[in-house]
Amino acid sequence: MTSPAFDRRSFLKAAGLTGAGLLLGFSSDAAGTESLVNLQLADPAGKPAVLSFELHPFIVIDNAGAITLINHRPDMGQASWQAVPMMIAEELEVSMNQISIRQSDGLRKYGDQLSGGSSTVRTGWKRLREAGAAARQMFTTAAATRWKVDEGDCYAENGSIHHRPTKRTLTYGELVDEASKLPIPTKLTLKAKKDFKIIGKAMPRPEVPAKVTGKAVFGMDMEVPGMLYASIEHSPVIHGKVVSVDETATRKIAGVKDVVRTERPMPHRTSEAVAVLATNYWAALQGRRALKITWNNGEYDKQMTTDRYYAELRAQADAAPAPYYSTGDFAKAYDSAPKKVQATYETPFLAHAPMEPEVAIAHVKADGSCEIWAPVQGPDGTIEQVAQYLGIAKEKVQVNVPFLGGAFGRKAYLDFVLEAVNLSKAAKAPVKVIWTREDDITQGPYRPGMLSSLKGAVDANGNVLAFAHTFIGESIMGQVFKGLKEGAADDWAAEGIGKDESPYAFPNALVGWKHVKTDIPIVWWRSVYPSNSCFGHESFVDELAHAAGKDPLAMRLSLLKAQTEGEAGKIAQRFVTVLETLAQKAGWDKPLAAGQGRGLAVCRSFGSICAHAVYVSKQGAGVKIDRVVTVLDCGMYVNPDNVRAQTEGNIVMGLTAATKSGITFADGKSEQQNFHNYQIMRLPEMPPIEIHILENEEAPGGVGEPGLPPMAPALCNAVFAATGKRVRTLPFDLAKV
Questions:
Q1: Pairing, β 464-473 against β 450-458
Q2: How far apart are CA 528 and CA 445, in angstroms?
């Protein structure tokens, strides 16, 4: 990423800072190294005093004492709006009710602004706290200098500096003039966990009242003067081409201004579309419905079917993979073993289906600049893509990001933004593009459907001799980023099943990847590849335990305790703690009633380890989920309430992915259109959930996604325990196992 040089006047205007103040932000040198800088001292003719670290949003404190903290990660429900300022406020020694929060705009240098990969806390943990500590120390130095006392006799608390011997106090606002003239301190001391006042404490989320009362602004709420509304008809066969358009009926509808042949720019292919522009959305939608379009689908109606895709996956089940890791000699151990087990596990394509479908406003202005108003996951990436699409400098693109009404990865895929940009350029006016629910579900992009091919062997004494997992399917790195070399493994897809993510001490193992392409558009979906791979991986570990005649928990613990190699050995010990805690909290050793079954699964993803124990009971031809018990090791965390909320959401989404509709393509078209045939879990269907968060001082991991991957295998392992039937293809019907 590159950034323009700081224009202090522009920044002061953007930040709303009218008087003198302390501004901590970023600068970068000629080599692109980012550094924390006191903008008050930043002189274009000279080198500012800096403290080097990788990323930091601005801290703005004015001489009236007003404190503004910038949230650099868009909030799509994962509570970055609270988590980011909490980390800064902890070290800054201010309470959450003393601050105001602003969303970053992507134009300024806040570092990586993408909300995704459960990364906000784990990447910001040290550097955001360092920024707060730096500002706190600058105020301490300013107070000590004014009082002519030793800094060691001063301390910060509640937005003020206090002098212990004399009980004198100065607020940050009273000290801001002196503090703003100081260089950034180069030696910082961060708090120990035991001294936290904010971090790790349950606190109400500051944006919730506005969301409850309807005052919060989401992408669907945004309007700009003079804008037109656009509803876009895409080909039912996603990559079909427009042959002809009869727009006669459309142009008779009051409010319709124009019908435009347009495009949908996707990373791997640009598709054709037809847009109706109108003065209101209802007219645009009715006008779209009145269009008569003839499409040429080419061969896509034959090629883009899920039956064909899965047949290609199965055909690769025995092919040699590009390895992620291997130990011992799998082939030799497997071939000579007295008892062999082999299975394939399939997971479906899935839509993201956020409650707020895709929406964006774009205004390509006469001066060649462009302004965007959109619920995007990455404002910095939006600037980059819009600038590239229009062929203009990034400095000429501005992004305004509201709250996101859900995303799950979808709103980091910016086709809908570029559609608005293209239409605005053609209309020479601001244009608001609104996708319908049907657009969202039928057009993708989707979580890729995948297949796991697994083989294993045990000896006569019930010891696991061999384990192999080939993960097969389309590559996000390959399709979206065109960055996967032929025959190479997609490294992203190793998460959840690599040696450090699943550190079982298999004496002979081979875990790898096989690429099968499709034109069905894909992108990351909540928890990305582990939502697919861990289903097969952890279900098959259960199969091996059954073949060995061992308790599934006991066998896992045995394999983990035997892992002593390097980083995998350290992680394995954390797995052991998680599973032993789960056994205790879930009452794993207690007898079950007739017709009941329990299953478990554990997975490490995004730096966190999550394990679920699921209890089910037979009910007619199927089963009922009685209880879910969860243990999560996410290292140190910001707000336990949010950790639980995110984990609950993961359980809901994991159960939905396991037991509700997947996305299927026939004749090149999605067979699902809306929530009537692409269903989600409803409140009455949810079982009781218990979530237990481990306390330790490990580095923070993610919490927005790690609870999802072990959900499906834990459920299906419980189904096997209760019924003797092994579920290997998702989704399945709980009422008909």
A1: antiparallel
A2: 13
pLDDT in tens, 193-242: 999 999 999 999 999 999 999 999 999 999 999 999 999 999 999 999 99
CA dihedral of residues 421, 424, 430, 432 (deg, nearest 10): -60
Tell me whether residue 733 is exposed, middle or buried, using C-beta atoms within 10 angstroms of its C-beta: 0 to 12, 13 to 18, 19 or more: exposed
Phi, psi dihedrals of residue 595, rounded to the nearest 5°: 85, 0
Distance CA 712, CA 691 (A): 17
User: Could you report how far apart the first and last alpha carbons of the chain are, in Å?
Assistant: 51
Which of the 8 DSSP states describes residue 320?
A: P
Half-sphere exposure of 494 (CA within 13 A, CB side): 18
Q: Provide the Cα torsion 70, 73, 76, 80; round to 10°.
A: -60
What tokens were used for 302? 């034959």
C-alpha to C-alpha distance for 400 and 403, rounded to whole angstroms? 10
* Whether 54 contacts 127, CB under 8 Å: yes
Note if the pTM is more than 0.70.
yes
Residue 556: its H or E element: helix 552-561
Of 21, 181, 33, nearest in space to 109 by CA? 33
> Whose CA is closest to 689, among 726, 646, 724?
646
345 by DSSP, 3-state: which?
strand
pLDDT digit string, tens, across residues 118-150? 999 999 999 899 989 999 999 999 999 999 999
Strands 67-71 and 322-327, how do they pair? unpaired
Contacting residues for 201 by C-beta, under 8 A, at least 6 apart: 639, 640
Contact yes or no for 287/278 (Cβ under 8 A): yes
For β-strands 59-62 and 67-71, DSSP reports them as: antiparallel
Give the pairing of strands 160-163 and 99-103. Answer: unpaired
Q: Helices in 395-480 by DSSP H: which ranges? A: 415-427, 437-443, 476-479
Supply 93's token pair: 């020694």
Q: Which two tokens stand for residue 164?
A: 């212990």
